[in-house]
Amino acid sequence: MSIKHIGPRVLTQAFRSLKTRNYRLFWFGQLVSLTGTWMQDVALGWLVLSLTDSAVALGLTMTIRFLPALLFSLHGGVLADRLPKRRTLIVTQVTQLAVALALAVLYSTELVTVTIIYVLAGLRGLVDAIEGPTRQAFVPEMVGTTDLPNAVALNSTLFNGARIVGPAIAAVVISTLGMAACFYVNAVSFAAVIAGLAAMRLTELHAVPRAPRDKALRQLREGLRYARSTPEVVVIFIVMAAVGTFGYNFQTTIPLVTKYVLVAGPSTLALLFSSMGAGSVLAGLVAAYRGKPSQRLLLGAAGCFVVLLALAGLSVWRAVTAALLLLVGFAGVLCMTAANTRLQLQVPGHLRGRVMGIYILLFIGMTPIGSFLCGQLAEHVGGGGATGVRATVLITAGLCAVGVVTAFIYARRPASRAQAGLRPEPAFSADAEQWTAVSADDLERGRGTA
Q1: Is 383 exposed, middle or buried (0-12, 13-18, 19+ CB in 10 A)?
Q2: Residues of the chain with pLDDT under 50
Q3: C-alpha distances in angstroms, 398 versus 63, 326, 392?
Q4: Closest CA to 86 of 137, 145, 49, 46
Q5: How far apart are CA 430 and CA 19, in angstroms?
Q6: What is residue 414's predicted lDDT score, i.e. its pLDDT?
Q7: Which domains does the chain have, with CATH numbers?
């Protein structure tokens, strides 16, 4: 094979899920919408700081934004297993469009206040608590299990591609047209997702058994019991809880680093978000080409993420901070993609919405705790200012490290049991469907059933 043929082969392998029409419609619609969302997030973070000049207010905005995921994502997972996922996603996207349009109109008419921002952030988070588990569980219905690892990686790629494009566009739009334009663009961008979902061919979706009608709490307990009884899932959830709570608070920490440590403005803020997004996109493409990730990659990427995050907290130079955030983005997405892919392959179809609801709870729903902690630490540690922000990043990196080390220790337990000749006990048996606790590696090799 000549070198000139390697490039096309690599690209074809990395983007193979886009051959599926329904997923292609979904992917490009999400790309447009997420670009608009990142434009709004950059503008919104700067707007809150401009209105209040308070790290606590910014942290509180993110807390309110993600609090519904903490409170309701488990119930959102139950709904994801019960309701038609495509229709549910259309309803949530229409609702998000209305919330985004309300923010745009209120800002352009000079009626927006911090209190209104808090209310709209909460409404957005409430919709996300339903949309998140549903969107995650919908991916296997579009591509099937064969291309699922690739599709999960491409989802990470598009999210972080939008993270590059969105802040870059936002910086230009804010400086030329003002913040209101970012908010209006975000509102319009939701139409792309709605159109893509509406244009899907229902006959080409992969059938997944829907959870039988039952009491919501009973179905919720079923998902929790499965997760608790499956060691592979427990390891993933420990990592995601640590990274989600203490590591992925960049919408709070990056604006603080920009304003108080680097003493810069919106253009530097966009650069830092874009740098992190560039590393994230590269990681997504690597993951898409590699296929199914190992548990070693999951834990190794999480460890690198913690170290790089701490180094970013020590940097006082714009170029060095941008370079470190590029590496943070790379390690973070490798970790997230590995966790999501292994979880999707592990979980039976009729439980997928509920288990992904737990995933959303731990990775996104715990963000309110981390965002509030970041705001409080940055305001009060070391007298606030640059010292407080640096200390905040270092403290949260240390707390994240505790979780990663705990996951590594726990991951050794199943290996020890296997060496002793012990088989994992069945985690749960339901009338609708029987399943046993097996690892994602066993599923790939065909040695287990689910």
Answers
A1: exposed
A2: 1-6, 415-450
A3: 21, 20, 10
A4: 137
A5: 36
A6: 55
A7: 18-202+216-442 (1.20.1250.20)
Residue-level pLDDT at 119 = 93
Q: Residue 205 gets which letter from DSSP?
A: S
pLDDT at 13: 67
DSSP 279-306: HHHHHHHHHHHH-SPPHHHHHHHHHHHH
pTM recorded for the entire structure: 0.68
- Give the span between the Cα atoms of 14 and 435, in whole angstroms: 32
Q: Pick from 293, 302, 287, 283: which is nearest to 407 by CA? A: 302
Q: d(Cα 34, Cα 157) in Å, to the nearest integer?
A: 11
Nearest CA among 99, 101, 92 for reference residue 127: 92
CA distances to 234, 309, 313, 404, 427 from 397, rounded to whole Å, are 21, 6, 9, 11, 34
The pLDDT of residue 325 is 92
CA distance linking residue 38 with residue 281, whole number of Å: 15
